[in-house]
Amino acid sequence: MPDGTDTRGERRARREGVRTALSDALIELVEQTAFKDISVDDVARAAGITRSAFYLYFRDKHELLIAAAAGAAQALYDEADRWRNGRGRPERRLREALGGVAALYERHTGLLRAIIEVSGYDNGIRLFWREVVERFVDATSEHLRAEQRAGRVPRELEPQATAETLVWMVERCCYVYLAHGERSVRELVDALTATWYAALYPAALRRPRSSAAKLSAGRRPSSGQR
């Protein structure tokens, strides 16, 4: 192929490469600096491009923040899916899901803290983050209805309101306690798991251990095992 002639695929790949470099640069910067103090010049310089070139890819740094957070949001959703589609008992699946969400939040503290804080004054960011959280709410509400049909979750719980309460609780706790280093991931996950499990599966908390479990716990070892 003659010099200066690029295929459409090559141009697209190059464009995506620059967008990724800009997103990565912003993610690194917000770990050390408040988003409001980061300029387009700072991001462009960190990504190795000029300020004018930045505007070929993003309208402003707020649009870049949304693009950078979109990947983290999908990863959070994938972790949360362990409860809905994982294997094992509900308590175990809840702990795995909440543990994955909290650990990912801790790894992306600067980025997610920036999104939440900027959502307080920027309408575009606020709408983006609201849609992210509502995706979790909708999936949780749908799963609660399935759990109710299966007889595992009390029917008196209203799925939508319960999902909104529990999901927003996780969002706020991760922001307040992890973003500011006030709790460890393990401490927070222990508290969140206990709260979700008590709210959704109260019958399981009251249920005595099965006869088989009691026999197993009280069984004496045979002479060959002593």
What secondary-structure arrangement, pairings included, does this model have?
Layout: H1 8-30, H2 40-47, H3 51-54, H4 61-85, H5 90-107, H6 109-118, H7 123-149, H8 159-178, H9 185-200, H10 202-206, H11 211-218
Helix pairs in contact: 1-2, 1-4, 4-5, 4-6, 4-7, 5-9, 7-8, 8-9
Please provide a written account of the structure:
The chain is mainly alpha-helical. The protein has a domain at 62-201: Tetracycline Repressor, domain 2 (Orthogonal Bundle), CATH 1.10.357. It is 73% helix and 0% strand. The chain has helices spanning 8-30, 40-47, 51-54, 61-85, 90-107, 109-118, 123-149, 159-178, 185-200, 202-206, 211-218. The termini are far apart. The relative contact order is 0.09.
Structure summary:
With 226 residues, the chain is mostly helical. It is built from eleven helices and no strands. The longest helix has 27 residues, at 123-149.
Q: Can you name the CATH architecture of the domain at 62-201?
A: Orthogonal Bundle
SSE ordering: HHHHHHHHHHH
Spatial extent as radius of gyration: 23 Å
The outline comes out as elongated
Per CATH, the superfamily of the domain at 62-201 is: Tetracycline Repressor, domain 2
Indicate the proportion of strand residues: under 5%
Give me the CATH fold name of the domain at 62-201: Tetracycline Repressor, domain 2
Distance between the termini: 78 Å
Main sheet, how many strands, which sense, barrel? none
User: What would you call the structural class?
Assistant: mainly alpha
CATH class of the domain at 62-201: Mainly Alpha
